[in-house]
């Protein structure tokens, strides 16, 4: 299909598609004439993925590009897959030094974690932000979050490891994680209602 | 303290504090002279809360104002607390019609949920966004999310219900939820590593 057909199929303005092409978020089409290229179903899938990352997940263009890059060039060793996927995820507090509390807490769980993984920096920064705002997050709550997330992670890893080839697996481990965070957030609110109703009855 | 002392204590520009005052996010100080007012520790706490909502949690001024309003005028009946708190939380997909899948899924869990709660709209919208992007979220993953979030919610509700007066409880149930969503997200990524290492060993 032509660029304008591609834009129409993705329900996006032509200018947006051209912008994604310039920014390297969408690979070039197959040249047909000097000024025309042909785009296929893979381009449409990619466009929908990029759109969801930028729009639904609210990623910056740079963050979306990092995910697209690792999907296009996935690690060949399965054992490296998740570490590399995590390195490509946006991290809000990457420059925040990991606190002793965060390290001790994770060590206490018996989890084997890369000591410099972005999620440890993010855990530190997010804990500090909540407490500065007067929300007293304690060990009980952190332990419940770790237990709950371990349950969720079993299904997440299943989905990533059974998702076709290495590129699919990385796509699920990166885009799949940021795009399902809002599902987890919605489910947490539903669970609040369920638990509160039961307690107050 | 004066307005500039308050701004300094909160590490914010005076203009930002004035803006929050104008927007109703910070209550006025006690008038001292015609042009000067006095601000107390409560103002500083409020400023830190608003700052975290806008900055760390990324809420709009309108969304932050909705949370501050319910903290300042909390429901007096404990049974109404969480419903009202949830109504004050930002909802991305509030206008999205709740899908049959979302209703059936929650009913299947045996959870009693307000049929029009924003979280059901958000669940529908987030599921649709993930799938449109090519992430195949199925019942297994949703069930794991529900189980994991139920574990997390027990601790969340504990914290809200043991947090002093009604205003504190609403603050924890609203601001506490949006400010700890990033902690849950970081913990989920750490759990991914833990589970993947164990499976691949």
Describe this structure in words.
2 copies of one chain form a homodimer. With 201 residues, the first copy, chain A, is mainly alpha-helical. Chain A is built from 9 helices and 2 strands. Chain A has helices at 3-10, 14-22, 41-56, 61-72, 78-88, 100-109, 118-132, 139-161, 166-200; strands at residues 30-31, 37-38. In chain A, strands 1-2 form a two-stranded antiparallel ribbon. In chain A, β1 (30-31) and β2 (37-38) form a beta hairpin. Chains A and B meet through α3, α5, α7, α8 and α9 of A and α3, α5, α7, α8 and α9 of B.
Described by strand count, sense and barrel closure, the largest sheet of chain A is:
2 strands, antiparallel
First CA to last CA of chain A: what distance? 59 Å
Q: Which strand order do you get reading across the main beta sheet of chain A?
A: 1-2
Which segments of chain A are poorly predicted (pLDDT under 50) over 5 or more consecutive residues?
A: none
C-alpha-based Rg of chain A, rounded: 20 Å
Q: How would you classify the helix and strand content of chain A by structural class? A: mainly alpha
Overall number of strands of chain A: 2
H/E element string of chain A? Answer: HHEEHHHHHHH
Strand content of chain A: under 5%
Shape of chain A: elongated
- What proportion of the residues of chain A is helical, as a percent range? 55-70%
**Quaternary structure:** homodimer
Pair of chains with the largest interface and how many residues each contributes:
A-B, 91 and 91 residues
Count up the helices of chain A.
Answer: 9
Mean pLDDT of chain A: 92
């Amino acid at each position: 299909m032509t660029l304008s057909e591609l834009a129409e199929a993705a329900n996006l303005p032509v200018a947006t598609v051209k912008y994604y092409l310039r920014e390297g978020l969408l690979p070039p089409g197959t040249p047909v004439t000097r000024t025309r290229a042909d785009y296929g179903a893979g381009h449409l899938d990619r466009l929908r993925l990029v759109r969801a990352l930028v729009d639904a997940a609210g990623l910056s263009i740079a963050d979306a590009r990092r995910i697209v890059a690792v999907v296009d060039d996935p690690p060949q060793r399965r054992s490296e897959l998740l570490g590399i996927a995590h390195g490509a995820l946006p991290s809000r507090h990457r420059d925040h030094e990991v606190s002793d509390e965060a390290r001790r807490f994770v060590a206490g769980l018996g989890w084997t974690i890369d000591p410099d993984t972005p999620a440890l920096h993010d855990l530190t920064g997010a804990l500090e932000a909540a407490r500065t705002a007067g929300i007293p997050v304690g060990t009980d709550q952190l332990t419940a979050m770790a237990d709950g997330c371990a349950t969720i992670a079993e299904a997440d890893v299943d989905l990533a490891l059974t998702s076709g080839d290495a590129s699919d697996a990385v796509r699920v481990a990166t885009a799949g994680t940021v795009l399902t965070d809002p599902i987890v957030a919605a489910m947490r609110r539903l669970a609040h209602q369920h638990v509160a109703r039961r307690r107050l009855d």
